[in-house]
Design a protein that fits this description.
Galactose-bd-like_sf; six-stranded mixed beta sheet; serine-type endopeptidase activity; 63 strands; 6 domains; hydrolase; P_dom; mainly beta; six-stranded antiparallel beta sheet
């Protein structure tokens, strides 16, 4: 007995489009012989409604003995009929590799005539078949054909086993459907009485494959210089807007074509800017709504060496972007393009996908900032993407518009890629017809009197609909409205402030019939004036404000002194309440005052500033300054001094230094510019290690604002302003004056607000002692002649104190020759609130 193995083999690689046609079915065992039949097909898909051609390769192998296959057959589902076929035919001789071809409807086979035992048409070898079948248009889902090969014992009764019904599955091709517009049917509407237009909505959907794609070469569109959302180099760190990008020494596009970009990294000997950054570069955001493929060529050259100067790229997000990964210790978040172990001259090509809403940053990076910069030239910058093809209105009115009486033709077009990838434009149009209210009344009835209140511009549009009574009229815009003293207009007339308080005659005229009617309008102003109060703080003796919202110009300072907070392994957060500033006050500049002493290990320190909106920046970190006390006494200011030595940190109470990031002077506070200054600002000072002591002595926040005086205003004219004061609190702690302002317009409408004026007590340091006096013999030595102490230019006399400051004096007369007089006058100045005194000496000489 023979051993025959009928097996299907597959290479398992679907991407190569090879399908297995047979499965391992088993075997009949004999010690004499065995053979194997395999079938492969490169096709994987079929298309309904057309003829489909499938090819097959059938291989017959044995274990070395002579074996035969006398029938190879393919069967397709009912309705999928064989049209034609080619294969090894006709039958020649036993094992000749050819069989008689025959097919009926959906089945085709190659057989051995007579089917003799021990012989067959096919023996060892590979045999190729091509079959064309007609697939009906209604065919859906997988199409399953069956492959059968039979041994040399065919037909039954069998002397050898056969292989039957081995599936070959083809998936249906989803046909390309061209993009098409679906315009709505023509629409007709009839207006209500008085209406002149109809607000109508409609949709123009698309069907089919509506996609458009292509590529753009050069820095254009979402990657144009004007589209840069963030950039930085030695001159500063910028967002665009508010600071529009312009070419600079470190970032240069070849304007106006913008086909190349050159980057240079920072270098002490090269960069003209005062500041050094690790990265010089630009960032864009892909705001197209679809993923984009970006490619470009680059060249790179450096004198310093590729390890120290690098070309890098960042694929970022809103959370991780150039602005918050721009320090040297964040270089690991970037992708190096140049080889740090390569040559000083390098080049290459980059291809990257930027997802929708993703960010692409390109930068020249330096480790040392010296020995010459690297230069990176970027060219052949190509951006490609596939986007949805959207309908475009080419004529007519968009959905949701007010359609006028008559017929409006609305036309749309859409441009999308066809099956070959070429853009094709299709269009469609539809009509919207608006009919006027039918059979409007020719009888007119006017209201006898209408109360009209003007708007916030002290104007009112008196329309036809306000005057006519009833709802049986045609389009109101067709009627002519005339108002005494203000002329005429189709559909209505605009009146202004000069009409307030008057009763005016109004006439409505129908040009079509010549009919008219009249009435009156009484014009009023019912809107109150606008008024805003700003709280202020003054020193006792200074003039109190005479307006509710005086100007606030310059730095608003809140400073905490006399602190004794141990910073070692602690964290302190200090709140600064700038809520007295009106909401929406923009920050022009912000500086931070810090004073810390007794600290021996400054790398443990971190100072952070947080705005009311939640923006937080670390403004003081340092890498050195250890092993001894290193006092910090300065104001952190973007416009401050650049320092490189630890001892420069102890600059002085009013000395200004730039913020420090890892020990590098770095402007950072500009990030707060433009934010709302009103609210609670926070300064957090923390230390993450023990054993280094340190005490916080002073912390402050200084915010520069520019708020011009804001006067009460009214929509219709002048405003009368009055106030009343209520005092509370202890003058020695800060007297509070609540000033209640009332604004009244010419129509009697009022608005009010409260202004809180904090009056601070004077301090002895604010007192100016009188200067020495030199006069002539016989002059009076009374202080009214020789001078009193003063505060802010206001004299303090022994009969008239200034706030909490009182004065007194005693004289010591010195001997003088002749008729001259020399007096040493000692002034005693008392602060009544603190019960402390100050003495100063005035010398008076008369001769």
């Amino acid at each position: 007995m023979k051993k025959k193995n009928f097996t299907i083999l597959s290479n398992g690689q679907a991407r190569n489009f090879w399908l297995a046609c047979l499965l391992l079915l088993g075997s009949i065992t004999s010690a004499l012989a065995s053979y194997t039949v395999t079938c492969t097909s490169p096709q994987t898909m079929y298309t309904p409604g057309v003829n489909n051609t499938f090819t097959y390769s059938v291989a017959v192998t044995t274990n070395g003995t002579v074996e035969y296959v006398d029938n190879i057959k393919f069967a397709y589902p009912a309705g999928v009929n064989v049209v034609s076929a080619t294969g090894p035919s006709p039958y020649n001789f036993c094992g000749g590799g050819q069989g008689n071809q025959s097919f009926v409807t959906n089945t085709i086979q190659w057989i051995t005539p007579g089917h003799p035992s021990g012989c067959g048409a096919f023996s060892t070898g590979t045999f190729n078949f091509s079959i064309t079948v007609a697939v009906p248009a209604g065919q859906t889902g997988p199409l399953v054909a069956t492959f059968t090969s039979e041994g040399d014992g065919w037909p039954p009764p069998l002397t050898d086993p056969q292989v039957t019904n081995i599936p070959i599955t083809y998936a249906m091709v989803i046909p390309f459907v061209p993009c098409a517009l679906v315009c709505p049917a023509n629409l007709t509407v009839t207006l209500d009485p008085g209406a002149c237009a109809a607000i109508l909505s409609y949709t123009v959907p698309t069907t089919g494959n509506c996609l458009i794609g292509g590529s753009v070469t050069g820095f254009q569109g979402a990657y144009a210089p004007s589209a840069i959302n963030y950039y930085q180099y030695d001159a500063g760190i910028f967002t665009n807007p508010p600071t529009p990008f312009t070419n600079a020494y470190a970032i240069t596009f070849n304007s106006p074509t913008n086909t190349t970009l050159q980057l240079k990294d920072a270098d002490f000997g090269f960069s003209p800017g005062p500041n050094i950054f690790f990265f010089n570069g630009v960032e864009w955001t892909n705001n197209t709504g679809a993923s984009q493929n970006v490619s470009f060529n680059w060249t790179y050259t450096t004198n310093d060496g590729p390890f120290f100067d690098r070309f890098e790229m960042l694929l970022g997000t809103n959370a991780q972007n150039f602005a918050n990964t721009n320090f040297g210790n964040q270089e690991g978040l970037w992708t190096r393009i140049t080889n740090i172990n390569g040559a000083t001259n390098q080049n290459g090509t980059v291809m990257v996908s930027v997802p929708a809403n993703g960010r692409l940053a390109l930068s020249a990076f330096t480790l040392d900032g010296g020995f010459g910069p690297c230069t990176v030239n970027i060219s052949n910058f190509v951006v490609s993407s596939i986007l949805p093809a959207l309908p475009v209105l080419t004529s007519g009115l968009p959905s949701g518009s007010a359609f006028p009486i008559g017929t409006t033709q609305n036309c749309y077009s859409v441009t999308a890629n066809n099956a070959a990838g070429a853009p094709v434009t299709t269009s469609c149009c539809f009509n919207i017809t608006v009919n006027e209210f039918p059979s409007p009344s020719t009888t007119l009835a006017c209201n006898d009197n209408v109360q009209v209140s003007v708007n916030d511009e002290c104007e009112a549009f008196v329309s036809t609909s306000m005057i006519l009574e009833g709802d049986v009229y045609g389009c109101y815009d067709d009627y002519l409205v005339s108002i005494q003293g203000f002329g005429s207009g189709q559909g209505g007339v605009t009146i202004n402030s000069s009409a307030v308080g008057q009763t005016l005659t109004v006439t409505v005229f129908d040009p079509e019939t010549g009919n008219s009617c009249w009435g009156t309008i009484s014009v009023e102003d019912k809107l109150p004036p606008t008024i805003e109060c700003r709280n202020i703080t003054v020193l006792c003796g200074e003039a109190l404000p005479t307006v509710p919202a005086p100007e606030l110009i310059g730095y608003q300072n809140i400073l905490y002194t006399g602190l004794n907070d141990l910073v070692e392994t602690n964290s302190f957060t200090y709140n600064f309440d700038f809520s007295y500033l009106p909401t929406g006050t923009p920050v022009l500049d912000v500086d931070v005052r810090i004073k810390i002493d007794d600290h021996t290990w400054l790398p443990d320190l971190n100072v952070e500033l947080t705005s009311p909106s939640g923006l937080t920046k670390s403004i003081f970190t340092i890498g050195g300054c250890v092993g001894q006390d290193w006092p910090i006494n300065c104001v952190l200011d973007d416009a401050g001094q650049v320092i490189t030595l630890c001892l420069q940190l102890n600059a002085g109470d009013n000395a200004r230094l730039q913020p420090l990031v890892a020990g590098v002077s770095t402007p950072l506070l500009f990030n707060f510019n433009g934010l709302d200054a009103s609210g609670i600002w926070k300064v957090k000072i923390s230390d993450n290690a023990a054993g280094d002591d340190g005490h916080i002595r002073a912390v402050g926040v200084f915010i520069n604002v520019n708020l011009p005086q804001l006067d009460p205003a009214d929509n219709c004219g002048d405003v009368d302003l009055t106030y009343t004061d209520t005092e509370s609190g202890d003058p020695c702690e800060g007297l509070l004056i609540t000033r209640h302002w009332v604004a009244t317009d010419q129509s009697g409408n009022t608005a009010a607000c409260d202004q809180v004026i904090t009056v601070l007590p004077l301090v002895l340091d604010s007192v100016d002692c009188p200067a020495a006096y030199v006069g002539h013999c016989g002059e009076s030595t009374d202080p009214s002649n020789t001078g009193w102490p003063s505060v802010n230019g206001t004299p303090i006399t022994d009969d008239n104190n200034v706030c909490n400051i009182f004065v007194g004096f005693w004289d010591h007369t010195l001997n003088d020759c002749g008729n001259g007089v020399k007096i040493v006058r000692t002034w005693t100045i008392l602060d009544w609130c603190t019960q402390t005194t100050l003495e100063c000496v005035q010398v008076i000489k008369l001769g």
